[in-house]
Amino acid sequence: MFHISDSKDIKQGKVTDVYFDRTVRILKEKNLDKRVVAEVRAHHLPPGYEWAVLSGVDEILYLLEGLRVEVQCMPEGTIFHSFEPVLNIEGSYSEFAKYETPLLGLLCQASGVATRAARCKKASAGKPIYHFGARRMHPGITPMIDRASFIGGCDGVAVGRSAQMLKEEPVGTIPHALVLLVGDTVKATRLFHEVIEPKVRRVALIDTLGDEKFEALRIAEDLGDDLFAIRLDTPPSRRGDFLELLKEVRWELDLRGFRKVKLFISGGMDEEKIRLLAP
Q: Which ranges carry the Quinolinate phosphoribosyl transferase N-terminal domain (predicted)?
């Protein structure tokens, strides 16, 4: 079994902290329920963060749908600051008390992902960035993570189901597995070119078997104008000065007339690394 909540359980308020259920029991038994206005805001943001991006609103509205409450909320993707209200709920407390736990969870995680994506996009100085992080998250929440990343500023996502829900085309390159199975970088890329539909851009992975510079030139000479970009996913143990490696590959490609071939960088990227590598 997968250790993930069923959507019906979340909607029915079963995924909540027990003290909310106990509070509602007390209020009803003692006839103490009141009409209230609940305000949601972030008391503080992570160190160095002056703003954040709101996400998870779509799920919040679905969570509260059908309840006898009034909801006011900032639009999805809005920039907000600490202590700034992002959501108000007005109604009898017992009507929505059990939803505080899932409501805050939905907002906090999605907004955290969207904010980090926005900071990475800002660091890229306008260059496209894509979310390839599904393998670091529980697959049950992959569409949510991808959606929040997209709202925050990522230009695409790799998981097909997530892209479908976003009404976008999934983006991706060639995995190391294909290169290892074929046994040669050029042959693997050539097979990709022969089998995969033309609308998918040809981005060759060049760090699996040989020196990045020489592999990049081999691929460029073989695919010519069909090659859109080369991808460097070089592991940290072999990177050394990664920026210098990128400059060297770029220089070699330009020298031989492959100026249109772009460099696609992946592997442990964060906003600091993006800022360094995408001046």
A: 17-111
Domain 7-111 matches domain 173-279 at the CATH topology level? no
User: How confident is the model at residue 267, as a pLDDT?
Assistant: 86
Tens of pLDDT, residue by residue over 29-86, are 999 999 999 999 999 999 999 999 999 999 999 999 999 999 999 999 999 999 999 9
The domain locations on the chain are: 7-111, 173-279
Please tell me whether residue 68 adopts helix, strand or coil conformation: coil
75: DSSP letter: P
What the block records as the tokens of 277 is: 């590598």
pLDDT of residue 194: 97
User: Residue 148 CA to chain centroid, in angstroms?
Assistant: 6
Q: Whole-angstrom Cα distance, residue 63 to residue 59?
A: 6
Measured CA to CA, the distance from residue 25 to residue 10 in angstroms comes to 19
Assigned CATH topology for domain 173-279: TIM Barrel (3.20.20)
Candidates 209, 140, 204; CA nearest to 173 is: 204
DSSP string, 163-225: HHHHTS-------HHHHHHHT-HHHHHHHHHHHS-TTS-EEEE-SSSS-HHHHHHHHHHHHGG
Are 192 and 202 in contact by the 8 Å Cβ rule? The answer is: yes
Cα–Cα distance for residue pair 154/130, rounded to 1 Å: 5
CATH of domain 7-111: 3.90.1170.20
Pairwise CA distance, residues 89 & 69, whole Å? 7
Phi, psi of 245 (to 5 degrees): -60, -45
Q: Which helix (H) or strand (E) holds 91?
A: strand 87-92
- How many CA atoms lie less than 13 Å away from 3 in the CB half-sphere? 2
